[in-house]
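queue> pop job 88
queue> type: inverse folding (structure -> sequence)
queue> payload:
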């Protein structure tokens, strides 16, 4: 069992790679972004509380996301956990270390996905997702074959994230540089940081991540 963190700015491709690891290695993806969006959709009190913060591109409180992760860590671990979008602050990283310790688990690697900002902006503003199966598309680089119809499952409910606008993206990037990028130094100092080129072709990124996983086992 291998537990990893995928670290990188919004649009680096963390979610895409995590889904491949779920399919290929039966790992369990823990995406706090997905959990928060589900809470929002379900209309729970917490979901209502975080909706505006998320739409602006700001981070929600450590307390909320640590609580979400704590709940999921007691569940099925499969081939290991992929932390996607968590931790995003040093406080979250410390809390994760304590939670993993308590479970007798360890982090095997922290994989930094390196990309440049120009690529992020074009990747994110143009992105849409199938509401049926989660397949990800893009207006210019990967449109659906038939407009607004999923190639994979035929669903016609295409969704755009409320925070995939230029304004919110600017805030998300600033939050990343101020609060999340210090984690690279933190995990480097722990000897856990591995970097892959997030701008390479999707299969090549997957290959680079597979290499890290195989050497961590
Ligand atoms: P991105 O594509 O920007 O990496 P995510 O789907 O991971 O986005 O997260 C979307 C939003 O959810 C973030 O901008 C933030 O508001 C909130 N969020 C997700 N994970 C965390 C976290 N670990 N700590 C604080 N806020 C979070
Ligand atoms: Zn679909």
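queue> result:
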């Amino acid at each position: 069992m291998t537990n990893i963190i995928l670290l990188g700015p919004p649009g680096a491709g963390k979610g895409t790679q995590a889904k491949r690891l779920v399919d290929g290695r039966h790992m369990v993806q823990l995406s706090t972004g997905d959990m928060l969006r589900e809470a929002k959709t379900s209309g729970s009190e917490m979901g209502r509380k975080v909706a505006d913060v998320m739409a602006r591109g700001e981070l929600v409180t450590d307390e909320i996301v640590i609580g979400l992760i704590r709940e999921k860590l007691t569940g099925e671990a499969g081939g290991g956990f992929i932390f996607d979008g968590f931790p995003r602050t040093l406080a979250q990283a410390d809390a994760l270390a304590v939670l993993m310790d308590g479970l007798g688990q360890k982090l095997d690697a922290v994989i930094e996905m390196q990309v440049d900002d120009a690529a992020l902006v074009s990747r994110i503003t143009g992105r849409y997702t199938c509401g049926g199966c989660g397949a990800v598309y893009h207006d210019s680089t990967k449109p659906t074959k038939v407009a607004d119809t999923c190639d994979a499952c035929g669903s016609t409910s295409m969704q755009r994230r409320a925070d995939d606008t230029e304004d919110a993206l600017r805030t998300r990037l600033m939050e990343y540089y101020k609060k999340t990028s210090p984690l690279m130094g933190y995990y480097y100092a722990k000897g856990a940081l591995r970097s892959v080129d997030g701008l390479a072709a999707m299969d090549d990124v997957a290959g680079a991540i597979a290499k890290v996983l195989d050497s961590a086992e």
